[in-house]
Write a structure and sequence with these properties.
A: 409 residues; alpha/beta; Rossmann fold; 2 domains; 7-stranded parallel sheet; 6-stranded parallel sheet; 42% helix; B: 507 residues; 7-stranded mixed sheet; 12% strand; elongated
Chain lengths: 409, 507
């Protein structure tokens, strides 16, 4: 089958946040289809825990030379740019790609496109598939506006130029929603498929009554799991935090994941808050087992997503859990056909959100059967992308050109 | 099977290792959207690994090895939902499957091999440390309370309410600091490699706690008693022997730690698995002598299949290895302590080696134990010590297995045992055994070993000479005679799953 180089701006062996999970399962799905996948990740080893073979290119030494260094919301784009502009970084990047001898490259997110574009100057026959998570020019625009960044317009223009250039150069692309795919089809004549985000089935029933401190079984709680993606924090602050007064003394809103790193300073800035002290639990990053325990004991799952592009990976996980789900309409982007399930409540105002949290807690909720969940497993959601890789690989020139093809024959 | 499979390797997740099932393990079926699933009906066994945790990085003594092997054989079973736990800071804490497997797999251990002992920060150590701190502070806190009371009384009546409230808050703040639960992230310096201990287990009446470790050392039975009383949790424990009660002279005084633990065990175990019929009988005697009613017990013979490929690499001196490879030696395995009766072997070899025709060497594998100075002195004083008499204080399973494979026979003259693991291990390796007639040792000989009273010195001498003159032979027990870990685990799994499903406890 095909030798695929899988380029990511983060580690994927032990995924934590949504982008990592999508990339992790993309590589696995391609391997399951018989392709040989070489994982090549480019990131700062100071920002993610390094593993034996990750990062392939460490950006930490050049991190201080990054443009817009004070604007952490664009650190992904600006740091990856250095893989193209820094001589040593690009040499390491090109060496890994050369060693992989890829017949096709799958690029996760657009940030490494400048480096890949430079490498392709000498390897133009190797097709690229752009596996996008969302329309980044739109997502960054919302994030930068939310943060009040003065240089927002200039940065967003750069992101848009990068996306357009990549989409035009790519042999194919995938989006996580039909809406995003429609936008991308406006940029390119190459095929654009929809491979929405998925999830894995978790067995959690045996973990009832196993809880991370400070929770105990006398407390009922609804759960929000989120990464440090800014819309997670702003959505939580806008939609879920105002619901604290509807919680009774033995009830909590529990937040797990790196989103807590964004919420903690926001909450601290507001001064002492007894409502927060007694009704909100911020756990920070939790292990997979701890997440299973939380899901096994939660009365419901919150998806307070206020804005952003793509589809929310946590939405798939919430739907599969069978627990009551309280989410904004934004949270169901890409999953709208599941929004009518009996356990799902859509709420787009803080008042409605609070009322639905109250209902979830009153529901005494054992999880419900969700046979439709099978559609949301990664092996099914990523099928269009796997098929796209197969189609493009079938038409592509092998790495090394005719010599390789002749040797094989 | 219910363990957290996704933790077994970094690149595995449930979507590939599990079939598409719902949260209760049932196939997802069409047309059932919205049907409620039961949330609390999974019979669970909490397998305590506190001993393996406290002994991680150290050469496993018999009980540690037993805990490790039973867990390795029970965790993957389809008929049992096993959740690994550690006793820590007054609670049982759930472990991820990968962390638990790392604890019971010596190869993955980050610590070098060294002498045994509970390291600082182990469950036992932190529990004791905290109890000590609280006990020390208690008189001081009483004094603070009395002073505070007098201060409040001295204030004008209008200010007393506010002052009391302020003190309540101050007390709460102090308690937050002094009594804060100290998990892996709680600030206590835990040893390297400590797993995530933040997940507290709150058991229910359908759960079973399985204790197969050094239960006098690593768990707090008073806490288990309270947990059992409050939740209906059922407890199954393993009794290895009653030697501290039956032969206190074989152990350093005082014995009240063991005595206390054994009483807790019989008071709080719904079922005690005894590793031999001999131990079961000893337990019945102890129960009666302790004024308790008879309790449910069952005999489970432990496996003896050493999980290692024989390897002589640890025997680094080529001449020694070459001499052992001839196969002309008797092997004795077990801690050097009075009860193991090494004195008999030392005496016999001192006498037999005087005869040039007697060419059987003696190889001992075991750490020095209590009151072993005299026998060690005599051992070292033997004329052939270091050449014809060898003592390995510590060997891996692979090294030990190689010695079993090479030896002419195995000798086991112990005065009393709860089982007799070296006897079974020798038979597993096809080696002849001469073993003691006391305690459970004859039971471990399965009718194959030559059984002689450990005080019958002439009998041992005769048997040794006869074996020395006999060409090397292999004993072949009938298939299924000897216990294996797989079979032991299957029997235990059956018992535990019946209990977890609510079956009544019977002997």
């Amino acid at each position: 089958m095909t030798r695929v180089a899988h380029l990511t701006p983060y580690p994927t062996r032990q995924p934590r946040h949504g982008g990592q999970l999508r990339a992790h399962h993309t590589a696995r799905a391609l391997e399951a289809s018989g392709h040989t996948v070489e994982r090549i990740s480019v990131f700062s080893a100071a920002h993610y825990p390094p593993t034996d073979d990750e990062p392939a290119v460490d950006l930490e030494p050049v991190w201080p030379r990054m443009r817009y260094r004070a604007i952490w919301q664009v650190a992904d784009m600006m740091s990856c740019e250095l893989a193209a502009t820094d001589t040593a970084c690009f040499a390491a990047f090109a060496a890994r790609l050369d060693a992989a001898r890829p017949e096709l490259v799958v690029l996760e997110e657009p940030w490494l496109w400048p480096a890949l574009r430079r490498w392709r100057a000498a390897h133009a026959t190797v097709p690229v598939i752009f596996n996008s998570n969302n329309i980044d020019s739109r997502a960054k625009a919302a994030i930068l506006a939310d943060a009040g960044v003065a240089e927002a317009a200039q940065i967003v223009a750069e992101v848009a130029a990068l996306e357009h250039d990549l989409a035009r150069a790519a042999a194919g692309a995938s989006a996580t929603t039909e809406e995003d795919a429609a936008v991308m089809r406006g940029w390119t004549d190459s095929p654009v498929v929809v491979a929405r985000n998925g999830t894995v089935l978790r067995r959690t029933a045996h973990l009832f009554g196993v809880l991370p401190a400070p929770l105990d079984p006398t407390q009922r709680f609804v759960l929000f799991v989120g990464s440090a993606h800014p819309p997670n924090a702003s959505g939580f602050l806008a939609m879920a935090l105002p619901a604290l007064p509807v919680l009774r003394s033995n009830e909590r809103i529990v937040v797990a994941g790196e989103v807590c790193n964004l919420l903690t300073p926001e909450l601290a800035a507001g001064g002492p808050n007894f409502m927060v002290r007694d009704r909100l639990v911020l756990l920070g990053h939790v292990s997979e087992l701890a997440l299973d325990c939380l899901l096994a004991n939660a009365s419901g799952i919150l998806l307070p997503i206020a804005y952003g592009g793509g589809s929310n990976l946590k939405t798939a996980e919430a739907l599969v859990s069978g627990l009551p789900v309280v989410g904004t309409s934004q949270a169901f982007r890409g999953f709208m056909e599941f929004a009518g399930l009996p356990q799902v409540a859509r709420a787009d105002t803080p008042e409605a959100f609070a009322a639905d949290i109250r209902r979830a807690l009153d529901d005494a909720g054992a999880p419900r059967q969700v046979p439709e969940a099978r559609q949301l497993l990664w092996e099914n959601t990523l099928r269009p992308l796997v098929d796209l890789v197969a189609a493009i690989a079938g038409a592509a020139m092998p790495y090394g050109g005719r010599d390789t093809a002749q040797r094989r024959s | 099977m219910c363990e957290r499979l996704s933790g077994l390797e970094d690149d595995t997740d449930l979507s590939t290792v599990l079939p598409a099932t719902d949260l209760d393990g049932q196939e997802l079926s069409e047309g059932e959207t919205g049907t409620r699933m039961e949330r609390q009906n999974v019979p669970r066994v909490f397998f305590d690994l506190s001993t393996s945790f406290a002994w991680r990085g150290h050469t496993a003594v018999g009980i540690v090895r037993t805990e490790r092997e039973l867990f390795r054989h029970l965790i993957g079973r389809a008929d049992l939902c096993v959740i690994p736990v550690l006793y820590h800071d007054d609670d049982f804490r759930a472990l991820a499957a990968d962390a638990a497997l790392a604890l019971v797999t010596p190869e993955t251990n980050p610590h070098p091999q060294s002498q045994a002992g509970a390291p600082p920060g182990s469950p036992a150590a932190t529990g004791v440390e905290r109890a000590f701190l609280v006990a020390m502070l208690r008189p001081l806190l009483g004094l603070v309370r009395r002073v505070a009371h007098r201060l409040v009384v001295a204030l004008p009546p209008t200010a007393r309410g506010d002052a009391r409230l302020a003190m309540v808050h101050a007390r709460r703040a102090f308690r937050e600091v002094a009594y804060r639960r100290r998990g892996a992230t709680g600030g206590v310096a835990m040893p390297p490699g400590t797993p995530d201990l933040s997940l507290v287990v709150y058991p229910t009446a359908t759960d079973v706690l399985f204790l197969a470790g050094l239960n006098w050392d690593v768990v707090n039975w008073s806490r288990i008693a309270a947990l059992r009383s409050r939740t209906g949790l059922r407890v199954v424990s393993v009794m290895y022997d009653l030697i501290p009660m039956k032969f206190p002279e074989f152990l350093p005084a005082p014995q009240h730690g063991y005595h206390n633990c054994f009483l807790h065990m019989i008071d709080n175990s719904d079922l005690i698995l005894c590793i031999s019929a001999s131990t079961q009988a000893d337990l019945a005697t102890f129960v009666a002598a302790s004024g308790r009613k008879p309790i449910a017990t069952e005999v489970i013979h432990l496996g003896a299949d050493v999980p290692a490929v024989p390897d002589p690499a640890e025997i680094s001196v080529p001449a020694v290895r070459a001499r052992l490879a001839r196969g002309r030696f008797a092997l004795a395995v077990g801690t050097l302590e009075i009860r193991k009766n090494y004195a008999l072997l030392v005496d016999l070899w001192a006498e037999l080696m005087a005869d040039p025709a007697f060419d059987l060497d003696l190889v001992i594998v075991g750490r020095p134990g209590w009151e072993a100075d005299e026998v060690i002195r005599r051992l070292r004083a033997l004329p052939g010590f270091g050449t014809r008499v060898l003592w390995f204080q510590q060997l891996s399973d692979a090294g030990l297995s190689w010695l079993y494979m090479q030896c002419h026979l195995v000798v086991f003259p112990s005065i009393y045992e709860g089982w007799g693991l070296p006897v079974v291990e020798a038979l597993q390796h096809g080696r002849p055994v001469i073993a003691s007639s006391r305690g459970a040792t004859p039971e471990a000989g399965f009718g194959i070993a030559t059984i002689i009273d450990p005080e019958d010195r002439a009998g041992w001498r005769t048997a040794l000479l006869a074996e020395a003159r006999t060409p090397r032979r292999t004993v072949t027990p009938a298939a299924g005679t000897l216990p294996t870990w797989e079979r032991s685990a299957a029997m235990i799994a059956h018992r535990l799953s019946r209990l977890a499903e609510g079956a009544p406890v019977t002997s």
